[in-house]
Amino acid sequence: MAGKDERGLYPLLTQLGMVAERAGDPVFYRDLLMVLGSHLRADLAMVMRYSRHHAPEYLIHDGLLPGHMEFYLRGLYRVDPIYRLCRDENGRGVKDLTEVSTPAERAGDYFNIFLRLTGMADDLALLFPIGGDASIGLVYERKSPFLKTELAAMRGLFPLLESLHRLHQKLSEAQLRATIRQIGDIDEMTRSPAKPGLPPIDYKTALDGFLRDKLTPRERDIVRLILVGYPNAKIAERLELSLNTVKNHKKRMYLKLDITTERELFLNFVNFLFQDI
Predict the structure, then answer these.
(1) Cβ neighbours for 32, distance < 8 A, ≥ 6 positions apart
(2) Residue in 235, 216, 232, 226 with CA at minimum distance from that of residue 269
(3) Which pLDDT score, from 0 to 100, does residue 110 have?
(4) pLDDT for position 189
(5) pLDDT tens, 122-173?
(6) How does residue 186 score in pLDDT terms, banded at 50, 70 and 90?
C-alpha cells in the first residue's frame, strides 16, 4: 500500500502536468511557485534571480511585505546563505537553511534577525541554473520547520522540475528570437540590468564592524541583542546588568546616533551592510 507521502504526491503530479502546459508562457514560474507552495503549506513564497555578479532580484513575491523586500535589497541579502551559495557556485538543487548555513550561523543571531523581520522559522529554496552564472530560485518560507520527508519529496521531484524549467527556458528563448526577427531589436524591458551585487559577508563580521567608532563595547553588546528583538529585561539578564543600567545605556546610545526607535537602529544596520565592507 502506498504511504501517506506517496499518496500526497499524486495530486501534485497532476498539477505539475498542468504547469507543464504553461512552459514558454510568462506565468510559468508563478504557476509552479503556487503549486509547490500549496503542497509545502508555505506561508511566504517568491521567485528570485541569484547571480554570481549581481544583487538578488525579486521576480515574483507572494505575501512578502514591501518593507521586508526593501530591507533585504538594501543590504540584508549580503548575510543570506543562499545568496552566498549562488555567489560561490552556480546554485542548483533543493536547499534548506541547514544545508546552506554553518552551525555557528544556525546557533547565532543571524536567523533570529530574520525571524524577527518576517516571523518565519525556515527557508527552502529550489535553485535552477540559467546561463552560466545565474539561477532562478523558488524560495519558500514557513512559520514551522520543513520536515525531512518534505525535503526528500522535493529532492525526488527535482529532476522533473528541472526538466520543466529547461523546457520553459528553451521555449522562452525561441519566442524571444522570433520577436527579435520581427521587430529588429530587443525591447528595453528585456534588458533591464541587475544592480551589481556586493560580496556576501558573515553576520558576525558585519556586526563587529557596525558602529565600532561610535559606541562603546557595552553599547554595542546591547545593539546586538536589540537587533535580534530582545526586550530590555532579557538584555539585562543576558549581560548581567540591572534593568535601569540597560535603559540608561540605550538612552545615551540613541542620543549619540540621533535616533529614537529600534526600527531606526535596524535601518542603520541595513544601510551599513549596503556599504562595501
Answers:
(1) 16, 19, 22, 138, 161, 164
(2) 226
(3) 55
(4) 40
(5) 889 999 999 878 999 999 999 898 999 999 999 999 999 999 999 999 999 8
(6) very low
Classified by CATH at the fold level, domain 4-182 comes out as Beta-Lactamase (3.30.450)
- Amino acid making up residue 86: C
Length of the chain: 277
Angle at which helices 148-183 and 28-40 cross, to 10°: 170
3-state secondary structure labels for all residues of 184-212: CCCCHHHHCCCCECCCCCCHHHHHHHCCC
The CA distance from 53 to 135, in Å, is: 12
Instruction: Identify the bridge partners of residue 130 per DSSP, sorted by sequence position.
Output: 134
Which residue has cell 546616533?
A: 257
pLDDT (0 to 100) of residue 268: 87
Tell me the per-residue pLDDT of 192-227, one tens digit each, with 9 for 90 and over.
556 778 888 877 788 888 888 899 999 999 998 888
- In angstroms, rounded to a whole number, what is the distance separating the alpha carbons of residues 263 and 260? 9
Determine contact, residues 57/48, Cβ cutoff 8 Å: yes
Find out whether 74 and 68 touch, Cβ atoms under 8 Å: no
Q: How far apart are CA 183 and CA 177, in angstroms?
A: 10
Q: Rounded to whole angstroms, how far apart are CA atoms 17 and 20? A: 5
CA distance 134 to 86: 7
- pTM for this prediction: 0.77
pLDDT at 208: 82
Parse the chain into domains and list their residue ranges: 4-182, 203-273
Cα distances (Å, whole numbers) of residue 139 to 51, 96, 108, 153, 182: 15, 10, 22, 16, 36
Q: Which residues of 14-35 are buried (b: 16+ CB within 10 A; e: fewer)?
A: ebbeebbebbeeeebbbbbbbb
Domain 203-273 sits in CATH at: 1.10.10.10
Question: Mean of the pLDDT values across residues 1-18?
Answer: 72
